[in-house]
Amino acid sequence: DIFHTIDSQRPYLGKWLPFVEQTKDLRDSEEFVRACIDKHEERVEYTFTIRKNDVFAGLIGLKDSDSANKKTEIGYWLSEPYQRQGIA
User: Fold this and answer.
1) Where does 2-82 sit in CATH, by number?
2) Amino acid 7: pLDDT
3) Domain ranges (residues) in the chain
4) Nearest partner of 23 among 8, 50, 48, 3, judged by Cα
């Protein structure tokens, strides 16, 4: 789902997401997912899919968490068909 979305929307997503250019094939997306799982297990970063009606719409992630100061960085992206629908 991730690679298909990126590959089919390169011009749109590439305007804002620097990793689009480096995502050349399915293997790149698989490596990204493995890295997300590793970071989740290390409890340093959490990435989740955003879905609407069980269809992949984008990703949301939490990183650079600082529990002492009760803060974290949130980032997300949505594919073009899911923009302006109140999802994020």
Assistant:
1) 3.40.630.30
2) 96
3) 2-82
4) 3
